Amino acid sequence: MIEFGKLEYQPIKFDSEDRHQLMMAAIEKYAKPVSQGNLTPVEIVKSTRNTKLLLVILPQWAHSFPPYNLARLGSTAQAAGYQTTIWDLNVKARRQYTQGLWPSLDYDPWHPARDWHWQAPQYFDDLHVEMLPLMEDYLERIAEMQPDLIGFTLYYSNLAPSHWMIQQIKARWPRIKIVVGGSATHGQFLIPEPEWDFVINGEGEHQLLKLLDGIERGEEFATPMIMRQAENERIDLDQLPVPDYSFFDFADYSIPNGVCSELSRGCTAKCTFCEETHFYRYRQRRAGSILNEISYLYNTYNVNCVYFIDSLVNGNLNELRAFCKGIIASGMKLHWTGYARCDGRMDLEFYQDLADSGCVALNYGCESGSQPVLDDIDKRVSVTEMEENFRSSKITGVQAYTNWIVAFPTETRSDYANTMTMIWRNRNNNITAISPGQGFSASMDSIVGQNMARFGLMQAYYLDQWMRADLTMGKLHRLMRAKTFNIFLDHLMSEQYIYTSTRPKLKELYEITFFDPTMQLEIEYDTFDYDIIKPDLGPFADNAFNEIWPLLRMLWRTRGGFYGEIRFDTELDLAEWGSHNAVPFDAVFKFTIDWEGHWLVDFDLKFTQPNDAWIMSVNNRDVITNATRRARALSKIESTAPLPLHPMFEHGPPDLSFSHAWQGQGHWVR
What we know:
Blueprint: H1 17-27, E1 52-57, H2 68-79, E2 83-88, H3 89-98, H4 122-126, H5 128-145, E3 149-153, H6 159-172, E4 177-181, E5 198-201, H7 204-216, E6 225-228, E7 258-261, E8 264-265, E9 283-284, H8 287-301, E10 305-308, H9 317-330, E11 335-340, H10 348-356, E12 359-367, H11 371-377, H12 383-396, E13 399-404, H13 413-425, E14 431-435, H14 447-450, E15 460-462, H15 475-490, E16 499-500, E17 510-514, H16 539-546, H17 549-559, E18 562-568, H18 570-577, E19 585-593, E20 598-607, E21 614-616, H19 626-635, E22 658-667
Parallel strand pairs: 1-2, 1-3, 3-4, 4-5, 5-6, 7-10, 10-11, 11-12, 12-13, 13-14, 14-16
Antiparallel strand pairs: 8-9, 15-21, 17-18, 18-19, 19-20, 20-22
Helix pairs in contact: 1-9, 2-7, 5-6, 8-9, 9-10, 10-12, 13-17
């Protein structure tokens, strides 16, 4: 992971006109002098107001920096004169855990692989007793404060504790209004909870000020009210006040010398898997605006680390280049990072500017090492360009954080193998973190979710997840691919340490022993037929038997001969992966292969289909959110009418259960 460190330095004061002029001159070649067109300003009228606003975020969420969204909303409300307070109860709870005040837990509930413990009903079994004293304490503070409006930021991972606290507030103080926002409120089929008075969809600054103005004037609202941003509205970020971090104790955060910021909002890409790109329409901040904000935060809070929360920091390469040039000219000793796309236009000279401005890492959405899959995702980048970016990263010292998707609907086993190949080939090119994800999910606010037939998916959910129309991939295969990808990462060897967020207890379900533990072999992209076993049980079962081969062959190609055993266990997988990923599957894969490629296997698989496995999906509901409208427009769907049932449903939902063992041997060549 990135280690920013808290450096000792003397902050540069930007009251020097000469220093400011140098910074502005450095960006002139690249930056636009005015904001983009068709932007909506947020009109802030300063006045003395009586309405009290409280903004709250509960766990589980990031704890490295103070929450930027609340700092931004809080500063906007305060600029208009509203009495504003912000509570980050996520970091307060995290601090209790790190101080040993939650001794009953044998896991870190803020670990990315443990987010499902925060989701209902698991939260109330596992974590509510730990959270209760903290929430009761802050409920008492609400009793003293008596705010008029309380806003909760909702994510998929904090819905359960947030909902409990909201229920308590409404039960104790019915007059207090509740407004919710955040990504968990953007869904197409959102049903507001009875305790929610207002739901803000889209960018919050405009809608929050409208709501506060109405409360200040004593306006009567019909609740619940969903306040939707106009579909084509893009807020002018250059005109917003600087985020207010005065509500936060920087010592509470794991990077106490850091803040968040944004270079842009929205995304220039339209990746078919992504729902985030449809939340907001893209616009870029001017380099001068962001430089003024960063210099203010640098001098006011003595922070020198910035995490840009953009969907991508390199959506506008010219403005990003201008920002880098401005930081270099300013003399600020900054350390920054953010999400980015691999981009062939970013050459070695561009990377050097990134490094010289203090960019310590870029967090890339790589997704796949297969060109066909990248094309299906509409990534608009080539495998060659991605590898060139990694090489430039190594030369300039810009670390590469990487994020990957396994089991994209069109991904074949060869495609999957090529993803592992890309990682292995570039393991020494300054890749310092790999996030394997949990396997692909088809959100309704994504292009895939809006046109499932285009990606070969049936109009039905199996085990609450998508299924290929030909039954060759579903939730079972997704689990197998995600699990084997994690095992591959466990055995990655590199010159530098690479952080891989693999499953904490994964090693309890497999053993791999290499005949020469020190061996590392360099490999090229490979074309190989992974349909090795043909038990003739049907496409669902037959493909399950063959899902294991890409991992086994990749380990042999990169590390030489080995023997191993990989197990799937219904109960253990459920405890480790959660119900979103685990399936009723018990299996043992035993395998051995020598240096020359002679292999022996003994496989035993059993899958038991639950009674409620099949759910018919309908994709013709009324479109109500901006995100869904945008996704549907880009999905090129020809009709919103329900698709006809798959022929196999003519006699009722099919049972895909199977139990089968297979032993065999073979020979591979390098």
